[in-house]
């Protein structure tokens, strides 16, 4: 089977400069079909190599919101030594065509928000992109939810969507509070988000009981690591913390499954059923790729969630998971890129 059957061509409709080294790219499918996505999700592009339709993969978050913004748009920043971010910023123009596997991602709102009263977004730099998508959705759909955005940048001129965010704050002044942190500020206590400042902001906006507050984090790895540690130390339940991570840092596999025997995998995907056997050290995704099964994936290290599946029979073990919360794992959700069948055969379903 040719994996290219899972790919679609997408056309860049327009390009908008947001700040220095940051641009937004309006997208539409070349065949005219709608580009479906959920607030907070990303789209994964394929960059072919060696004359094949397979190659490098990169994911970029939508900054637009379905139902509010007419044209799906991604926003990205030039990353130093970033091969594809530099290519996008320097060379991509309206009319260019790209390959994609479509939208995915778990940096989204839970199905039921009845138990939550507040949402606190923590963003640094271009980490605002998926949060901006979520923010617009929450403000227009959930008027009872109080929303706080803590947004770190170097200075106002470098702040993506600065004007638009200020307009939202004025329009939704009873619901939205924005705390801008600029590293060039003379007030050093409010220049960068560190442990002590985050503790103070947490007390100010979430009090001492955090069970009714959801936290969404997006930014550099060290930024999110610090924020996660502080939040958990202050008693925020793990399931109340959602993180989006496109870091180039790849985790190193240190643990191994206790069961390293060969087991059968039945994979249900797009109305098709694939069966194969695999065992450690080959993950479910790695074996599926060898067989040219068009399973969606991007990071291959448990950081993005593109390859997520539901285990409906049997048990799997993951060596890394930075996406799924505990309640999702308990219901059988797994990341095929870091998963091995253990204790017997398994049946997985990808929808």
In brief:
With 351 residues, the protein is α/β, with parallel strands linked by helices. The protein has helices at 83-91, 128-141, 162-171, 195-206, 221-233, 284-290, 326-330, and strands at residues 8-19, 22-29, 42-48, 55-61, 73-77, 97-104, 118-124, 146-153, 176-182, 213-218, 241-244, 263-269, 272-278, 308-318, 333-335, 339-350. The radius of gyration is 21 Å and the shape is globular.
Tell me what you see in this structure.
Its cofactor is FAD. It comes from Ohtaekwangia kribbensis. The structure is a single chain. It is built from 7 helices and 16 strands. It is of the alpha/beta class and 351 residues long. The chain folds into 3 domains: 3-104, Elongation Factor Tu (Ef-tu), domain 3, CATH 2.40.30; 118-244, 3-Layer(aba) Sandwich (Rossmann fold); 263-350, Ubiquitin-like (UB roll). The strands form 3 sheets. Strands 4-3-6-1-2-5 form a 6-stranded antiparallel beta sheet. It has a 5-stranded parallel beta sheet with strand order 9-8-7-10-11, with helices on both faces. A hairpin with a 2-residue loop joins strand 12 (263-269) and strand 13 (272-278). Helix 4 (195-206) packs across helix 5. The longest helix is centred in the middle third of the chain and has 14 residues, at 128-141. The radius of gyration is 21 Å and the shape is globular. The mean pLDDT is 93.
Key features?
351 residues; Elongation Factor Tu (Ef-tu), domain 3; Rossmann fold; Ubiquitin-like (UB roll); five-stranded parallel β-sheet; 16 strands; 20% helix; Cbr1-like_FAD-bd_dom
